[in-house]
């Protein structure tokens, strides 16, 4: 059988691109993306997902094994990374050039990413000095489709006394980003774990010179590069909805 060629970006509809990006995010931990997970991420009915998955498979963009989930092919991954690059460069341009707040760029980039050409994105990237991460710390794939995704620890996983620098935060919820901004938990901020309450209780942290209290739900979505070794759990992979 002749391998399927990668469809040019211009030949992919916006819904197809959204599917590829969602599947890419779901399979980053090494497992296949389940139909229900795709439906939940895209906020659509599972029955709709089944039909689209068959279409994507026919285009050579995914592999689907019944009861075992969906995986991107090399062509599907290439197109997913192309879309992620567009999205994250757009976020950088909106914040750095157009002065958008970091909590307002995700949805705007979602709308623009399907219309922007690769040529426009590369001009934006050059104007920005070829950034490597977006405003929320997510890595930007290169124009050649290469992405480096370091595995950071969340605040919840750090031991008391551990120090680190915020590397990445979950970026889908504007209200959550405004909350983190109010705490000073933005990429590049220095943070130290001062205390942890038992039974999933809140954490007391020091951000810069300010002491803050943060719940475990929020702390689990802030990822840091640890600068002082401390005991912690398994390394986590930051979620990437962008």
Q: Name the structural class.
A: alpha+beta
CATH architectural type of the domain at 153-228: Roll
Number of helices: 8
Tell me about the largest β-sheet: 6 strands, antiparallel
**What is the gyration radius calculated from CA atoms?**
19 Å
The strand order across the widest sheet is 3-8-4-5-6-7
Distance between the termini: 34 Å
At the fourth level of CATH, the homologous superfamily of the domain at 153-228 is Ferrous iron transport protein A (FeoA)
Mean pLDDT: 89
Unreliable spans are 1-6, 230-235
Strand content: 15-25%
CATH class of the domain at 153-228: Mainly Beta
Extended strand count: 8
What is the CATH third-level topology name of the domain at 153-228?
Answer: SH3 type barrels
- What pattern of helices and strands is seen along the backbone? HHHEEHHHEEHEEEHE
State the helical fraction: 25-40%
Shape descriptor: globular
């Amino acid at each position: 059988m002749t391998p399927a060629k990668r469809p040019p970006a211009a030949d992919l509809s916006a819904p197809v691109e959204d599917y590829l990006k969602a599947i890419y995010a779901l399979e980053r931990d090494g497992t296949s993306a389940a139909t229900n997970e795709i439906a939940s991420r895209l906020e659509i009915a599972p029955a709709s997902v089944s039909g689209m998955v068959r279409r994507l498979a026919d285009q050579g963009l995914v592999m689907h094994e019944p009861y075992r989930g969906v995986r991107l092919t090399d062509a599907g991954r290439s197109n997913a990374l192309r879309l992620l690059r567009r999205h994250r460069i757009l976020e950088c341009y909106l914040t750095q050039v157009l002065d958008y707040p970091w909590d307002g760029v995700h949805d705007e980039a979602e709308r623009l990413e399907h219309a922007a050409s690769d040529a426009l994105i590369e001009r934006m990237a050059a104007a920005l000095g070829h950034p490597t991460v977006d405003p929320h710390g997510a890595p930007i794939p290169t124009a050649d489709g290469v992405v480096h995704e370091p595995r950071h620890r969340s605040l919840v996983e750090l031991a008391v006394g551990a120090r680190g620098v915020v590397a990445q935060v979950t970026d889908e919820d504007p209200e959550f980003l405004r909350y983190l901004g109010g705490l000073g938990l933005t990429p590049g901020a220095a943070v130290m774990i001062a205390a942890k309450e038992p039974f999933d209780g809140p954490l007391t942290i020091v951000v810069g010179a300010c002491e803050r209290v943060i719940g475990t739900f929020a702390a689990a979505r802030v990822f840091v590069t640890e600068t002082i070794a401390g005991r912690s759990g398994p390394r986590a992979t930051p979620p990437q909805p962008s």
